[in-house]
Amino acid sequence: MVNTKETMYKKAHTELYEVIKKLSKQELEKIPQNFIDNLKKNLDNEYEWRYDDTKTLEEQDFLIETKALLVEMYERYLCPKDKKEFWNNYDRICLKMIEDKKREEYNTDNIFKNKNKTVEIGATVNSEYQENLKMQNSNLPVEIKENLFKKVINFFKKLLHK
Question: pTM of the predicted model, to two decimals?
Fold first, then answer.
């Protein structure tokens, strides 16, 4: 089976190549030929996607990967110099948001929260939890501790039975 991630990227390259074919000659000159050659090399030949001329670029039905490639291509090659600062700031903000989300999700203070709650003896616990606890405890071996008095009595019993 073909790697689905790889397949999605090949489809995205196909969609991006179709968009590039619609660019003006002036915009095409801004894009390096090796970028276009790389796209051609990584196309999915079985995937058919056509640019719908009745829709604008924003209205096209692109894969998420294609949208990311479009933004990257625009930032690198087509973006006017006065807009580059805006895109650099946008990238920084997006990366910061991603890092903040990761930090919140994998916060060391919250990793074990709600995982294992200790229950004090005598605390009121719902009956379902109590039944579950009884079932778990019934399967465990029980160590019987004898007090000193019982040990002495058992010792004499053993002596008498011999």
Answer: 0.56
